[in-house]
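Pilot study result, target chain (60 residues):
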Amino acid sequence: MDKRKSCGCNSYQGPDTFPVAMAYVPWQYFHMTFDLHKALTAGTIFPELYKPFCGKRGCR
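Predicted structure:
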């Protein structure tokens, strides 16, 4: 007997049933950087990568 908790969906058949995925990653051009204090606070030196977590689903 499988002791995993069920989510109510019994259609999972294993990884062989999924199609092959194709990823797309656009080129990133970094033109400027944060100063040292802001970079340490933000967790990145690149403003393009700074995506703060606001605690809500897509809302600010």
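One observation from the pilot: Residues 23-60 form one domain. A full batch analysis is planned for the follow-on phase.
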